[in-house]
Each structure stands twice: as structure tokens, then as C-alpha cells.
Amino acid sequence: MKHLQDCVTLHNGVQMPWLGLGVYKVKDGEEVINAVRTALEIGYRHIDTAAYYQNEEGVGKAVRESGIPREEIFITTKVWNSDQGYETTLKAFETSLKKLGLDYVDLYLVHWPVKGKYKETYKALEKLYKDGRVRAIGVSNFHIHHLEDLMADCEIKPMVNQVEYHPRLTQKELHAFCKRHGIQLEAWSPLMRGEVLQEAALVEIGKKYGKTPAQVILRWDLQNEVVTIPKSVTPQRIKENADIFDFELTAEEMAAIDALNLNKRIGPDPDNFDF
């Protein structure tokens, strides 16, 4: 991982950039268009959105107008909970694709494990994958037991599991499980919405390398082999988040960051979420 466009190879051979731009809570229209445009100009080639974010139109517009060949940009979107189920997921996908104004999506995810529905939903993803509408499929916010349940009878193993992941929630067991099964872990809210940036250990490590605590965390993600999608709408911050390829944390520093774990979430627990 020496460059912004370095990729991990998913278990089906598809290349996914290690670092991307997240756009959760970024307003559709100029705000999201400008954020995506800035990221692409800096060199990002991975954008993560979702039907729920209601900004797929703006993301698609920025991608289409960027002048960058479509095959060089990795686009993720997700099916929302109220659309889960086989037929409804297929319909939701068409809506997302239309809003994005693209011919295909690189990664399509089941946004949350809605009880009694996520298996049917995932079957729809398998169909979209077999039909060549998406290049990779996966899940988001799945615990080990959800993955085991899904894999008991799915045809195509998820390529990605996108979960809340940061120094206060290191998800070691889940990460090990995903590694064993060739499922790539991806971090949403890697900076814990800023909550962890004052942490003395991170400030200290940052000083040594002339980096911010945010940059230290994102580097920790990458060295843990976790794909990461920090969200920002500030050009300077988007640029800063990508400036993490010119230093490397030591094993001791990695362990010091691991030790910050409190199993603390800022988002809902997938087992106790009001779907």
C-alpha cells in the first residue's frame, strides 16, 4: 500500500482501492458533487454511497463529468432496509443505477441484516452479479452469526463486509473470521466521527511522523488490511486523508492503537437495531 490507487484483490479477482471517499450525510447536489469531484481530482478512485444517503444522483454526476474512464472508478452503493426482499431489491437496484446514471455498480451491499429478509435480499444480489450488473457483492453491518447464517446456503460468498470499525471498536474476532473466509473487511466511520482524534496515543504517534491523529488511524486501517472510507466535504481534509502512503506504523504503534479498543459503537448494534 504505497499509493492512493493501490487495491486489494477481492476473492472473485475484482480490484478494490484500499482508500475511498464516504458520503454519508453529504447533501445531494452541489455539496456531494464538489466532494466527489475534489476526491477524484486528488486521485481517489473509490466512492461509497447508498440508497439511504439520498445522494446517488450527485455522486453519479460527479463521476460522469470527471473525464476519468468509468472502469477506473470503483462505485459502491447499498440496498436499504425497507427495500429488502428478492423482487424489491431488484427494483431498488434499478432505481439506484438510474439515479447514478451508470451502466453498472462495482460493489452492491445489503445495508443491514434485516431479520427474515437478508437471505432473500442477498439472493437478488447473486442474480445481479450473475447477470453482470454488479462486479462484486457483499454485506454491511453483519456479525459473525449473520455471515454464518448467510453462507450456510448462499451460492456466492460475500466479497466484502462493511462495518463500523475504529480504534474504539477493533472487531478482532469478526476481522479474523472474515479473513479466514476470504471476505474483505471495510471500515465505515473509521474516525469515529472525530470522537477519538484527541486521544493522546494517536497525537503522540502523529507527532513522530508529522501526521494528524486522523492520518494515523487511516494508516492503522490499511496496515490491518481493512479498506477504509473516511467521509469529508472539506477539500483540505479530503486531501489530508489521502496523504497516508509515505509512512509506516511500527508493530508497537499498531499494538498501542489496538489497545484503545473499548468495544464502543457510535452507530447501532446490528443485533439491536430498529429496522
UniProtKB/TrEMBL annotation:
GO molecular function, one term: methylglyoxal reductase (NADPH) activity
Entry-linked InterPro entries: AKR, AKR5G, Aldo/ket_reductase_CS, NAD(P)_OxRdtase_dom_sf, NADP_OxRdtase_dom
Site (Lowers pKa of active site Tyr): K78
Active-site positions on this chain: Y53 (proton donor)
Transmembrane segments: none
Binding residue positions for substrate: H111
Claim: Transferase is one of the keywords in the record: no
NADP-dependent oxidoreductase domain span: 20-261
EC number(s) per entry: 1.1.1.283
SUPFAM superfamilies listed in its UniProt record: NAD(P)-linked oxidoreductase
Keyword annotations: NADP, Oxidoreductase
Entry similarity comment: Belongs to the aldo/keto reductase family.
Stated name of the protein: Methylglyoxal reductase (NADPH-dependent)
Taxonomic lineage of the native organism: Bacteria, Bacillati, Bacillota, Bacilli, Bacillales
